[in-house]
Backbone:
C-alpha cells in the first residue's frame, strides 16, 4: 500500500473515522482538510444496496446540480443541418459528423462530453470501442442521445453530472470545488442524494443507501449521515 503524504496524514487527523457527520459538518471538514495548492474537486461517494450484475438493479442517469460543478465541460456534438446550428447557438465546443469520427479514431479526445442526435448514432456507434471504455459514449438514459440538442448542451454547460453504479455498487459524483461556498456544496450534495434515492430500483431489497462520504481530490474521505434522507 502506497504511503500517504504528510499533508494527507495531517488532514486525516482532523477526521473521526468512527463518526458519520451531518452534511454541514462534513462539508466544513472537506474544506478544512483540502491542503493541496490547487482548487480541488469535491466528490460525493455512495455505497448502494443494489446488485449491479442484475439488469433490473442498474442505476444510471444525469442531473443538473443546483450550483454546477465549477468545471467548464467541453462538449462535442454529432449533428447535421438545423440541429448543428442549434448546437452552435447553445455553445457547443465542437460540432460535426464524419470529420470528428475520423479524428477520434486517430486518437483525438479534447472533449469531456459527447452529444449525438439519434439519426447520427449509426455512425457514432462505430466509436463504441474507443468511447465506451472512457465513459464518453452518448446514451439516451443520460440525455446525450437526443434531438433536443440545445437543451442538452445548455444543461451540460450549466453543471450537468452523470451518475452510474459501478460493479462494486458505488456511485461517485463531483459536487463542486473547494472554493465553493459551503451552502452551495451542501445543496449540491442534497440534490444528488435525493436523486439517487428516487432512482432506487423496485427490485432492490434491504438497506438501499448503505453509506455516503465526501472528500476533496487529495483529502481523506468523510462519512456523511444520510439517515434523514431515507425515512
Residues:
Amino acid at each position: 500500500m502506497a504511503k500517504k503524504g504528510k499533508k494527507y496524514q495531517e488532514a486525516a487527523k482532523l477526521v473521526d473515522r468512527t463518526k458519520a457527520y451531518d452534511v454541514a459538518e462534513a462539508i466544513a471538514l472537506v474544506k478544512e482538510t483540502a491542503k493541496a495548492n490547487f482548487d480541488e474537486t469535491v466528490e460525493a461517494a455512495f455505497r448502494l444496496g443494489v446488485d449491479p450484475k442484475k439488469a433490473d438493479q442498474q442505476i444510471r442517469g444525469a442531473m443538473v446540480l443546483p450550483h454546477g460543478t465549477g468545471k467548464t465541460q467541453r462538449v462535442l456534438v454529432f449533428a447535421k443541418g438545423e440541429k448543428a446550428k442549434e448546437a452552435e447557438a447553445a455553445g457547443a465546443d465542437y460540432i460535426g459528423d464524419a470529420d470528428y469520427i475520423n479524428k477520434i479514431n486517430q486518437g483525438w479526445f479534447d472533449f469531456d462530453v459527447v452529444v449525438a442526435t439519434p439519426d447520427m448514432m449509426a455512425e457514432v456507434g462505430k466509436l463504441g470501442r474507443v468511447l465506451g471504455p472512457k465513459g464518453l459514449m452518448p446514451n439516451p438514459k443520460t440525455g446525450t442521445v437526443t434531438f433536443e440538442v440545445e437543451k442538452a448542451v445548455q444543461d451540460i454547460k450549466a453543471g450537468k453530472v452523470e451518475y452510474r453504479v459501478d460493479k462494486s455498487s458505488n456511485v461517485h459524483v463531483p459536487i463542486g470545488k473547494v472554493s465553493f461556498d459551503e451552502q452551495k456544496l451542501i445543496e449540491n450534495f442534497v440534490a444528488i442524494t435525493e436523486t439517487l434515492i428516487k432512482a432506487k430500483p423496485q427490485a432492490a431489497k434491504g438497506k438501499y443507501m448503505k453509506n455516503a462520504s465526501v472528500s476533496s481530490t487529495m483529502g481523506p474521505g468523510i462519512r456523511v449521515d444520510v439517515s434523514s434522507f431515507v425515512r
